[in-house]
Amino acid sequence: MNLKQPWLPYRQMQTAPKSMMAVRTEGVRIHLADGRILIDGIGSWWTACHGYNHPHIRQAVQKQLESMPHIMLGGMVHEPVVRLTDRLARLLPGELNHVFYSESGSVSIEIAMKMALQYWINRGVNGRTRFLSFRDGYHGDTFAAMSICDPVDGMHRLFKDVLADQIIIDLPRDSQSLHNFEEKISAHADELAGVILEPLVQAAAGMKFHEPEVLSAISSIVHRYDLLLILDEIATGFGRTGTLFACEQAAIEPDIVTLSKALTGGTMPLAATVATGNIYEAFLSDEYEKALMHGPTFCGNPLACAAANASLDLFETEPRLAQVTMMESQLEAGLSVCRDYSVVADVRVKGAIGVVQLLHRPDINHLREQFISQGVWVRPFGDVIYLMPALNINSDDLQQLIDAVIHVVKATSS
Ligand SMILES: Cc1ncc(COP(=O)(O)O)c(C=O)c1O
Predict the structure, then answer these.
(1) What 8-state DSSP symbol labels residue 227?
(2) Which atom, in ligand 1's list, is nearest to the CA of 260?
(3) What is the number of other CB atoms lying within 10 angstroms of the CB of residue 57?
(4) Pairing between β-strand 344-350 and β-strand 353-358 as defined by DSSP bridges
(5) Nearest ligand 1 atom, CA 140
(6) 237 and which of 16, 233, 307, 352 could share a cystine (Cβ 3.0–4.6 Å)?
(7) pTM to 2 decimal places
(8) DSSP-derived 3-state class of residue 263
(9) Segment 113-147, tens digit of pLDDT
């Protein structure tokens, strides 16, 4: 029977090859309907940090399903959401104690931006209505999120005429560019609600890295001008860069942090926007209008919170961060041979992220097909081939992913 097919994300439905049918996942493997098995090199868009079907998360979700799959968070709380809130507050640095839930990374960014805007309104400060963000950044597909993405390579060029006018500059990387950054901040301080960036790794718009010192310098400048620093840890959170949160490496205290992706170990949609006490207190008032004006229907869903609690258990009981350190060494040693190929512009590794950047944009569909024929699920984009697998992948499987990248890079060079 010819069943109707879903309209897929970021896919030219006319020319893209027919999609494969996944029927089962286990550990780092995806089983296809035609019997093929692929080793997953990207953990379902970087979510499945413990691999697929981890029994501890499965059992927690099953147990929650029996007692209460969902209850609205409007005027009511439940044990999984209270426990998760307390744990996130304890794990995040500084005064980040106030957790607002949603169901996707993009929406958690919308909420962070709204929170920052309303923070200034509630404090009686007028005119702070814009954000400063960075080229090569990606923060999601909803309208406020699109407005702070890279305006050229950020996938949202088409909408530039309807997006809010933000200030988007190169990420400073040395003292001269930090000086320029400070000048920009100084010139626009009165109209900025905050500065937003992905800490250490700008992921979906090009897999670009920066050093903790840069992050810490940005933080100092932002706070010197009494602006809010919003860190988007949606991709970097939960161990990916070697610490539970990337901002820990710069020893800074952001005002707002967004989390999603690996929050539930890649099992359920859940996101969080976490704010400091200073932000939260600006919303406390006897005037109803000063409350945060947001409330997604499924925010704080108990199944998702149970999954997130189980995922945090695994960070406590299994050696995830030590595994990331081992992955970093293996990725660096393995991918370094790619530096010798003429098509390669750069090879870089940070934590459990390995990137081979090509000099030119390849035929992406062809490259993706080559990876599938190597028995791996790797999805290059733009000029970037990258690996971001589960954090508990074993070294043989990781080597198979690395070998596939080397094979494809070599084939692209000849
Ligand atoms: C850093 C970052 N922010 C925001 C998002 C958007 O998250 P979502 O796709 O869940 O809306 C992503 C997704 O890739 C991301 O990597």
Answers:
(1) P
(2) 10
(3) 24
(4) antiparallel
(5) 6
(6) 233
(7) 0.97
(8) helix
(9) 999 999 999 999 999 999 999 999 999 999 999 99
